[in-house]
Amino acid sequence: MKYVRLEPLIDPEDYLDKLGAVADALPPGAREFATDPGHYDFGSDRCVKDLTVEALGYDDDHDRIALEIVFGPNPWKHTERLTVRYRGVVDLSLQVGPKPLAGRRLGSVVLDEILPHEQGCRHEIALHAGSIVVVAADLTAVWSAPTP
């Protein structure tokens, strides 16, 4: 992460300060998601912190790659799941770290950071046991009720 601090304490303030200056350079969907008031509010049920990766899938239509990541809710914090769909993916990195003590293999989301990129945007997601980085033309983020 370039601006979000993960250690010694999780702190998005430097990123939020920078976001004001770079938000206009983000594609529309990325800008809407990054600037959502609940995104970095740890008390909000729309904060990405503590979500877990439930599914990751892609579609390759020979011209463009689309990617979808479904994040499941933390039952003590979230009422909805988050689905992030990326279009025009040009780079994808998935790093798997040491296994967490409990829960899903990648652990839960620590925090994320979305920055402008010459191809559109760069979305970095820090997890307790890994990370995901996607560079794409744009993204859309949709909160929805979890399926039973």
Q: How many strands appear in the DSSP assignment?
A: 8
Estimate the strand proportion: 35-45%
Can you list the strand order of the major beta sheet?
1-2-3-8
**Mean pLDDT metric:** 92
Percent helix, as a range, is 10-25%
What can be said about the biggest beta sheet?
A: 4 strands, antiparallel
Counted by DSSP, the helix tally is 2
Structural class of the helix and strand makeup? mainly beta
- The Rg value, from CA coordinates, equals 15 Å
Low-confidence runs of at least 5 consecutive residues: none
- The total domain count is 1
Shape: globular
The string of secondary-structure elements, in order, is HHEEEEEEEE
Straight-line distance between termini: 34 Å
Protein name: Immunity protein 50
Describe this structure in words.
The strands form two sheets. The protein has a four-stranded antiparallel beta sheet with strand order 1-2-3-8. The protein has a four-stranded antiparallel beta sheet with strand order 4-7-6-5. The protein starts with 12 loop residues before the first helix and ends with a strand. The protein has one domain. With 148 residues, it is mostly beta strands. The chain is 11% helix and 41% strand. It is built from two helices and eight strands; from the N terminus they run ααββββββββ. The model has no long low-confidence stretch (mean pLDDT 92).
